[in-house]
Design a protein that fits this description.
Strand order of the largest sheet: 2-8-7-6-5-3-4
Largest sheet: 7 strands, mixed
Number of domains: 2
Shape: globular
Helix content: 25-40%
Mean pLDDT: 94
Strand content: 5-15%
Order of helices and strands: EHHEHEHEHEHEHEEHHHEEHEEEH
CATH class of the largest domain: Alpha Beta
Distance between the termini: 66 Å
Number of strands: 13
Radius of gyration: 21 Å
CATH superfamily of the largest domain: Type I PLP-dependent aspartate aminotransferase-like (Major domain)
């Protein structure tokens, strides 16, 4: 009798690597590698978390009703069409588990979030990589890659790690061009940072084959609690709830997320400050002669002359106690992704890069 083997596709998964958090020999580092909110969570969420600790012996809500109602009020959405997950990653997993399997194809773009490929392989489906155009999602390339086996198309808008995005009308053209047997998943992890963008919520109402996902890990500073959600036709949400564990979110996480989403003052301040500092970073990096696309997220992707220059700059930043994200595993070996931190953080990383550029030119 042979040894038990995992399901097909599992061993093709490369382990996900998160942004670095520590540097050997340094007690404190400036972490700009994981796109976390430098302000942390709102005080209202902290207070809700502490209050929820009084009921740690109680099982949490199975239907996440209070949180779904709060999300619905804030975003003008039907709570019955919302599903909550352990981060939006879990909602992506639900979608692959429910709608893709052996013999099916899942499309993602060349610089797309690594979890799209991982979730597809975990479900036994075949991931199909489609090229982008100058680091921007190419709708025509996606439509050309669709076959009768395509079940899901994943795009992040704004995208990670590029920070670029396609306009809503392009996303609508993509949704309209897909067959009825295929779902378009709009990953909106960074949607709040894009001015005037609803994350694709209107497209969910217009097209029956669109799913929007969102997260509390970025804008709301709750990455450590892992809370996300999805919005789709009620029939799709019903399917996802059939594969969702009944107690997938803890009581404290639900309480903190509900407080955070209703704290609109915190959200508005955070978005405004990010936009101000992001614009400064893009302008300064371009002044240094570095490539930097317009970002619609809470990070910037800076491009160097080549992979060696990017690695040299990353090593220099480490020497200065600053952690950023290398993006070679996203097909961008010549680039580094840098979170927009507090004002002092931005000044510090810009000064370090400026110093490295000057030294390299000498």
């Amino acid at each position: 009798m042979g040894r038990i083997a995992p399901q097909p596709g599992i061993m093709e998964i490369a382990l996900y690597q998160g942004g670095a958090s520590h540097l050997p020999g340094r007690a404190e580092v400036l972490k700009l590698s994981s796109n976390e909110n430098p302000a942390g969570p709102p005080e209202s969420a902290r207070a809700a978390l502490v209050a929820a600790a009084e009921a740690l012996h109680r099982y949490p809500s199975t239907d996440h009703g209070a949180l779904r109602q709060a999300i619905g009020r804030v975003h003008g959405l039907d709570p019955a069409r919302i599903v909550c997950g352990v981060g939006s990653d879990e909602v992506l997993t639900f979608l692959c588990q429910a709608y893709a399997g052996p013999g099916d194809e899942v499309i993602h773009t060349e610089h797309g979030f690594a979890m799209y490929r991982i979730s597809a392989l975990a479900a036994g489906a075949t991931p199909v990589e489609v090229p982008e155009r100058a680091r921007v999602v190419d709708v025509d390339a996606i439509l050309a890659a669709v076959t009768e086996r395509t079940r899901l198309v994943f795009i992040a808008n704004p995208a990670n790690p590029t920070g670029t995005m396609i306009p809503l009308e392009e996303a609508a053209r993509l949704a309209a061009g897909l067959p009825e047997s295929c779902l378009l998943v709009l990953d909106g992890a960074y949607a709040e940072y894009a001015a005037g963008y609803d994350g694709g919520a209107a497209l969910v109402s217009e097209f029956g084959n669109v799913v929007m996902t969102r997260t509390f890990s970025k804008l709301y500073g709750l990455g450590g609690l892992r809370v996300g959600w999805g919005y789709a036709e009620e029939e799709i949400i019903g399917v996802l709830n059939r594969v969702r564990g009944p107690f997938n979110l803890s009581g404290p996480a639900l309480a903190a997320a509900e407080a955070a989403v209703t704290d609109r003052g915190f959200a508005e301040r955070t978005v405004a400050e990010n936009a101000r500092l992001r614009a400064r970073m893009v302008a300064e990096l371009r002044t240094m002669g570095l490539g930097c696309d317009e970002s619609h997220a809470n990070f910037v992707l800076v491009r160097f002359a080549g992979p060696e220059a990017a690695l040299a700059c990353e090593a220099h930043l480490r020497g200065e106690g600053i952690l950023v994200r290398k993006t070679a595993n996203y097909g961008l070996a010549e680039a580094l992704r840098i979170t927009v931190g507090l004002e002092a953080d931005c000044e510090r990383v810009l000064a370090a890069i400026r110093g490295r550029q000057a030294a390299g030119a000498a």
